[in-house]
Design goal:
Largest sheet: 4 strands, mixed
Structural class: alpha/beta
Helix content: 40-55%
Number of domains: 3
Strand order of the largest sheet: 3-4-1-5
Shape: globular
Order of helices and strands: EHEHHHHHHHEEEEEEHHEHHEEH
Strand content: 5-15%
Number of strands: 11
């Protein structure tokens, strides 16, 4: 278990990342190749990724990256730098510029912690090896992560709407209580089901919560407690919607462009409960349920229960439809 100790000062410094972190998504997606757990949630992505990675150059990159990101108690922190929140280029540049002594130390820890680590990983601390690593990270991301960027952002947006609702209802305590399953808020400690036993004291530094598309039921924190504290946690997954699905789902959209359903799509872009939708539209809760069911079955919204309410938010397809056609137009 990971026990994160928060002071009063830490409560005011809890944030939720505004988008997917490309380096963490690389790490978590590589974990998906190492287990069948949760495979159903990533089935379309997994098939597409495996097909692309059969190309010789990409397969070579995969063989380089997998030993660096084992689904184990440890992988190097320098591979998931905080700079990546400004994008892939910033993250890769931070990997390239990490001090050689730090990289060598973390790679040594990896080899002594995880069985079967290849000896050649030590070469990645040096110039040519680091350049090869940077190239592999970019090509892997471009091949199997970037095509799902819109889906990932929509999932993170929906998660942030859910967390914002928890904050508005019950403040920082409500946010921390909303992070389960596997994460429990027992003031002043956030308990996280984890691969090992750890104590992390924030000491007023706050905590960045990073929703991850490719994480599956296993929150992750940086190994070095001296680094800025982050907690990676999985977003809620229904059936993931990949680029190959969009054409197939296009035909029923014409039946969903009535005034009320278009308004619901617009309101769901920032998250809305059934009661809020009923008030905004001036209709009964039963009418809202009828429309939200149709939108949900068409994969345009997702609905999550929180306490006694149900929060509706957009799916990637719903977000794309809203961008393509202004809400309320006929």
């Amino acid at each position: 278990m990971l026990r994160i100790h928060l002071s009063e000062a830490d409560h005011g410094r809890i944030r939720v990342a505004s988008g997917p972190d490309p380096m963490w998504e690389i790490a978590m997606s590589l974990h998906r190749f190492q287990t069948r757990r949760g495979r159903w949630a990533f089935a379309a992505w997994y098939r597409s990724a495996r097909q692309r990675l059969r190309q010789p150059e990409l397969n070579r990159d995969l063989r380089l990256l997998l030993p660096l990101f084992p689904r184990a108690v440890y992988f190097p922190d320098f591979l998931t730098p905080s700079e990546a929140r400004d994008g892939l280029d910033a993250g890769v540049e931070a990997v390239l510029s990490a001090p050689r002594s730090r990289v060598r130390g973390e790679l040594t820890r990896l080899s002594t912690t995880v069985d079967g680590t290849p000896a050649w990983l030590a070469r990645l601390a040096d110039g040519d090896g680091r350049t090869a690593l940077a190239t592999a990270l970019r090509t892997y991301h471009d091949a199997v992560i970037a095509p799902y960027q819109e889906d990932m952002q929509a999932a993170v947006d929906a998660d942030r709407a859910f967390r914002a609702r928890a904050i508005l209802d019950a403040g920082a305590d409500g946010l921390l209580r909303s992070l389960g399953p596997g994460i429990r808020w027992r003031p002043p400690v956030l308990e996280v089901d984890y691969c090992c036993t750890r104590e992390l004291y924030l000491d007023g530094r706050g905590l960045l919560l990073v929703p991850s598309y490719f994480d599956w039921q296993q929150p992750v924190a940086l190994a070095d407690p001296a680094l800025p504290p982050v907690l990676i946690y999985p977003v809620h997954h229904e059936r993931p919607l990949g680029p190959e699905d969009r054409e197939r789902l296009d035909t029923p959209l014409a039946t969903l462009l009535g005034r009320n359903r278009a308004a619901i799509l617009h309101l769901a872009s920032v998250g809305a409960t059934g009661a809020e939708l009923a008030r905004a539209l001036g209709v009964s809760p039963g009418t809202v349920t009828f429309h939200t069911r149709a939108l949900r079955e068409a994969n345009l919204i997702t609905s999550r229960r929180h306490a006694a309410t149900v929060l509706h938010s957009l799916t990637p397809l719903g977000a794309a439809l809203l961008r393509a056609r202004p809400a309320g137009s006929q």
